[in-house]
Amino acid sequence: MPVKQLVNNETTTVSVFLTWNQPDESRSDYTYRVQIANTSSVVINQTTSSNQLNVTNLTPGVTYTFTVFTRAADNVTESQSVSYTTCTVPGLAQNITVTNNNTTNSLSVNWTIPAGKVDNYTVTLNGDVNRTITTNSTQVDFTDLLPGRNYSITIQTASSNCSQSAAPVIEATCEYDGIIGTELYLYVEIIQTEF
């Protein structure tokens, strides 16, 4: 009497919404035990009488295995298990700043680590110059840029084998403010959105 078609309907940074089909010989007094385990072998059990469960209070960027057992009315007898493994969405890079360090051809991007697990960041610069840097630090520098140009910067977070990613978008607007001596000064305006 195991469940059928255990699937993940929605994943966020802190939750996974599971649904499944009841077994063919399902009875109204059956319940379902859902075992939740992460890569650190931390196991939590939740019980429901429904064929769905929204598992909350998870950690961003962590892989979890969800195992569902059909439980008989005696609360002892259980079916063979059905499992599903997925990961929560990694958190967004936080407190992102872009500075030009008083140069005319470079931008420095800094951010802080989000909650949860993140293995690396992919920082992409788009504009008249296009570049991508993958790093496990919280700072990158883009050099040899063109003065007075607009650039958009995307920071994508990744964790282990998680296919999901979170990407804030930063638009860095670099403008001439005039010439002082032989140095051109750039100003950077930061606009952050989330998608």
Automatic annotation (TrEMBL):
- Residue ranges of every copy of the Fibronectin type-III domain listed in the record: 2-91, 92-177
Q: Does the keyword Protein transport apply?
A: no
The protein's matches in Gene3D superfamilies, at most eight in alphabetical order, are given as: Immunoglobulins
| SUPFAM superfamilies the record matches | Fibronectin type III
What GO cellular component is one of the record's annotations? receptor complex
Reply yes or no: does the keyword Magnesium apply: no
What InterPro entries does the record tag this protein with?
Answer: FN3_dom, FN3_sf, Ig-like_fold, RTP_Phos/Ushers
Q: Which UniProt keywords apply?
A: Receptor
According to UniProt, the name of this protein is Receptor-type tyrosine- phosphatase eta-like
